[in-house]
Amino acid sequence: MRILLVKTSSLGDVIHNLPVVSDLRLSFPEARIDWCVEEAFADIPRLHAAVDQVIPVAVRRWRGNLGRLSTWREIGDFRRRIGGTDYQLVLDTQGLLKSALIARQANGRHCGYAAEAAREPLAARFYDATFVIPRNVHAVQRNRWLAAAALDYPLELPLDYGISAPAPETAWLKEERLAILLTATSRDDKLWDEQHWCAVAMALREGGLIPVLPAGNVLERQRAERIAAVVDGAIAAPPLSLPQIATLMARASLAIGVDTGLAHLAAALRVPVIALYIASEPALTGVYGTGFVRNLGHPGAPPSVHQVLSVVEQALR
User: Which of 154, 166, 195, 208 is deepest in the core (most CB within 10 A)?
Assistant: First the structure.
């Protein structure tokens, strides 16, 4: 059996789809599982040993370059690659018109959410079979239930993200207990107060942990450097790829982050994680896993430093 999963973005959504691969591997040990994903997140499916081929797509980049001949050549190459294999199942767990149209480029039985369950109801028109999956459950469960319905296997499988971090390449770090502080997110209204981060970092340092602050761009790095500058021993991390961040995470005793895909990566790696919600609701898309996971805060009610440090004590106990 050959199966293609279509979950292209964003980072958190891609991580939420990893347990589907584990479920498929348990239910169909001989199946070959491919995954179509946005190029920026292609390293995440590669962390799962059961993924055979990763097929990158570049819709985000192509949208801004449709006037270039090179873009149309890339699109043609992508269509030939994704259309060059016959799949028994093409499963779109994203439920967007974009993802449904991408899925249609592959050969096979196309399955996805029914109109009343999809994030964009129009997507359901492009599937050969659709399934009504409750909207009021966590995104991880929705993905898993959709796959189970499409392939008719039991729902009671253990939750397993199935990934492991690459071998350590962190020569810039000493062999000490680390706490990863994920201060950056995609929207400014999701940011936690910088002074709060300084207070938490100081408390962690006093507790014998080294706060490490990754960053993805210049503004994020400047914030990380400001926080690290006021906390003796804290480290603003150098630029890191997704696999390198996974390696860093796997070494950590704790991760604390705002609403960002990297907090979900920590949960997937079974690192104790505390996620802070300032402008978004965590009920259906918060951190979720079998290790120590806590979602704190709600829109209009961000967590306090005291709340965070109380949960830190629980996580490290």
Answer: 166
Look up tokens 């189970």; give the residue.
Answer: 148
Name the token pair of 303: 């967590």
- Within the chain, what is the greatest distance between any pair of CA atoms? 59
How far apart (Å, rounded) are the C-alpha atoms in residues 107 and 133?
A: 24
pLDDT of residue 158: 96
Query: How many angstroms separate the CA atoms of 232 and 270, rounded?
Result: 28
Query: What is the rounded CA–CA span in Å between residue 144 and residue 254?
Result: 27
Fill in the DSSP letter of residue 246. Answer: H
Report whether 184 contacts 213 (CB < 8 A). no
Rounded to whole angstroms, the Cα distance separating 238 from 200 reads 21
Q: Would you say 102 and 21 are in contact if contact means Cβ atoms under 8 Å apart? A: no
Other CB atoms within 10 A of residue 232 CB: 9
**What pLDDT does 169 receive?**
67
- Sites in the chain below the pLDDT cut of 70: 168-170
Ranges of H-type helices in 116-173 = 139-151
pLDDT in tens, 186-205: 899 999 999 999 999 999 99
Domains and CATH numbers, the chain: 2-151 (3.40.50.2000), 178-316 (3.40.50.2000)
Cα separation of 9 and 42, whole Å? 10
CA distance 74 to 53: 18
Q: Does the reported pTM lie above 0.90?
A: yes
- Selection from 28, 80, 81, 79 nearest residue 53 by Cα: 81
Asked if residues 94 and 7 have their Cβ atoms less than 8 Å apart, the reply is yes
Show the tokens assigned to 283: 């009920």
